[in-house]
Amino acid sequence: IPTATEGCRSNALVRCCKDLGIASELWDPRWIRKYKAQYTREAFVEHVVNKRKSKIWVRKDDEVSYPWKETK
Question: How many domains does the chain have?
């Protein structure tokens, strides 16, 4: 039940913020592209446990963390 409650609260907060215009840039595709170009990088990674490969976004000044391992 705590997980469901947290999910409902999180969803309600997102809806209220969106309706009130709080952090409205988070829904603007141009702002998202600019933010990603300035602060993030794409990393091709592999899950350490199940060996599933994926692509994730990571901050430029941060390293890929567990359970992911960066592949080259």
Answer: 1
**Using one digit for the tens of pLDDT, what is the confidence trace for 21-63?**
888 888 789 999 999 999 999 999 999 999 999 999 999 999 9
Task: Read off the pTM.
Answer: 0.63
Please state, in angstroms and rounded to a whole number, the distance separating the CA atoms of residues 26 and 15.
13
7: containing domain: 2-70
| DSSP code per residue over the chain | -HHHHHHHHHHHHHHHHHHHTTTGGGG-HHHHHHHHHHHEEEEEEEETTT--EEEEEEETT----TTEEE--
Q: For the chain, what's the residue count?
A: 72
Query: What does the CA dihedral 17, 56, 2, 10 come to, rounded to 10 degrees?
Result: 0
